[in-house]
Design brief:
Radius of gyration of chain A: 26 Å
Strand content of chain A: 15-25%
Oligomer: homodimer
Mean pLDDT of chain A: 91
Order of helices and strands of chain A: HHHHEHEHEHEEHEHEHEHEHEHEE
Shape of chain A: elongated
Low-confidence stretches of chain A: none
Number of strands of chain A: 12
Distance between the termini of chain A: 73 Å
DNA sequence: ACTTTTTGAGAAAACGCTTGACCACCTTTT
DNA sequence: AAAAGGTGGTCAAGCGTTTTCTCAAAAAGT
């Protein structure tokens, strides 16, 4: 990499002159200007952003956003919310961990050495110790899990309540044999959703049945197919997210069963565009994701400026009932 | 913001000692160490990343990725591809323009002052002059449009051919009155798709009918509803992307028409997860988006290192036929 | 008690850049 | 011809770090 020094040497001028030419400041003769510009091109000079940044004392605030899967609409919308709050002057470095735990850990550890002054971690599976450690160095906002560390703020949806609402709704439309296709037990979100489901079932005196599945359409399809083919009795299905629900629906249709009459289905996340597009349209527990992203970013800024007031921000979910669960009793 | 200097002053030590403590290097007495750590906490010291970066001469390569809409799966997948190629050590600053032209321009202009050493611009509507100008300062990789500027590389899908393929397919399954729901005329992609459609129609001696619509489900729905309600004769529909197709399908269903028997529909982009989920599943022109993202990133690196060989990289689309167009003649 | 080694701490250069102060030289004015 | 003003350019300080070198003081060895 070439520097101003190199350019100055090459053109027999001083560093300051070169700098002035390149920035269009001060007065410099046309001749020298040309020479310098030419030399710059020849050496392929690029200004060192860091040096400039420190010389001008202009600090560009940079935050890191770590998501497990940017293609998942949930995280895409989260990202959108964060970006909205960041405007044009705060930088967001996006890191997709591809649901790879090892990669996620590396990303988290490296972030602060890469300029991030704060971290928003969407739905993580890394252990608490790492969060604790990293939060000693830079502030962290996490989703869907509450921590009691000083520099960590949680933005969570009340997953328990959302699951409870969904399950109760299924019960109300007359389902008796309600199954829950859940996520892995590593994830706080999954656990809470499972608990909410179980609570509603218990309350109604029904027996709960939980199958850990995963997060995508394929997993939902496979699991549901398996369940149906071994003759499991199901008339209601609460899925841990919309994608799983969609997969399950595919399996149900393939089996020739009707939705919602044979099996009523409800998802979680409420990716509106997706849910409404489907036929039958998919009932789901709505999370105000974009808003959550905005709040996360705002809280992170406050945390960075050390003017934080709260430790967590809880959003309350809302049930969106569509065709997939609207059964006439 | 506090600096090492402040800490040194506060603890009556030197800058170097403070630095050593904070980095756990060299030897420092336990007493001083404590004092310094405490002061650091008190002042809320955060190391200046830029200063460190320049002192250690470690340059973190940073690139900017500008997309019009991260929630759109196309761009989400693009992002994923870019991230894949970037691994853990190259930083991606993501900027969502929210399809706001003004914002997009600002983002592009600012990027280089914010540390980006290269720019990947996904599907832009900004004028060529801006691209030309900015590419004098930092290398640019663009999608879907070919430029003849020195520092710009294009990664494009052969949109013309894709549209041609799709239209021809509709013709082959027996459609006669094929309508194209297109994007705006500002976008190169849209134009190419329209041209491909028109070419195929001309070739078959059919009359083309193009309606500029937009990019999302709602727009597709509204336009199609309008067309149907005014009694337009349609038996085939080529949509400029999947979302528009989905909206159109909703309108068609609402009208009580069958797909593909009354109207065969085909989309563009082939967001697999989405297309397969639908019923009927949606035929679409497939773009290898993730791969395109990877290639874009790779080319950008080469451009930054000035070892670029090519000016553009063309991907050839492939038709994925599913239920929505599979009509028995 | 004297030398040698270890330990703790500071001074200073360097990283690449910006910027205000400064200075020669050349014009123009009076 | 002297003063005043304009050019074109250099010097040097400063931004916040890291890191090597140096040095004094304390600890250990003789």
């Amino acid at each position: 990499m070439s520097s101003l020094k190199d350019l100055a040497k090459l053109t027999n001028t001083s560093i300051s002159t070169v700098s002035k030419v390149l920035n269009g400041k001060g007065r410099v003769s046309e001749k020298k200007r040309r020479e310098i510009l030419e030399a710059a091109k020849k050496l392929g000079y690029t200004p060192n952003y860091h040096a400039r940044s420190i010389a001008t004392k202009r600090r560009v605030l940079t935050i890191g956003l770590i998501v497990p899967d940017i293609v998942n609409p949930f995280f895409a919308m989260l990202t959108r919310g964060v970006q909205k709050m960041c405007g044009e002057d705060i930088l967001v470095i996006l890191m997709d961990s591809f649901r790879d735990l090892e990669r996620e850990e590396k990303l988290i550890k490296k972030a602060r050495f890469q300029g991030a002054e704060g971290l928003i971690i969407g739905n993580s599976r890394v252990n608490d110790e790492l969060i604790k450690e990293i939060s000693q160095y830079i502030p962290v906002v996490v989703f869907d899990k509450e921590y009691d560390y000083e520099n960590v703020v949680s933005v969570v949806l009340d997953n328990y309540y959302g699951a409870y609402l969904a399950t109760k709704h299924l019960i109300e439309v007359g389902c008796k044999k309600i199954v829950h296709l859940g996520g892995t037990h590593e994830l706080y979100v999954s656990i809470k959703r499972m608990e909410g489901y179980e609570a509603a079932m218990r309350e109604a005196g029904l027996q709960s049945k939980v199958y850990p599945v995963g997060y995508d359409e394929k997993k939902g399809y496979e699991q549901m197919k398996k369940l149906l083919s071994r003759g499991e009795q199901i008339d209601g299905l609460f899925c841990m997210n919309d994608l799983v629900a969609i997969g399950a629906i595919r399996a149900i249709k393939e089996k020739g069963l009707r939705i919602p009459d044979d099996i009523a289905v409800i998802g979680f996340d409420d990716d509106q565009e997706l849910c409404e597009i489907l036929s039958p349209s998919l009932s789901s527990v709505h999370q105000p994701v974009v808003e959550m992203g905005e709040v996360a970013a705002r809280l992170l800024f406050e945390l960075i400026r050390k003017e934080i007031k709260i430790k967590r921000y809880i959003f309350t979910p809302r049930l969106v009932i569509r065709e997939s669960s609207l059964r006439k009793r």
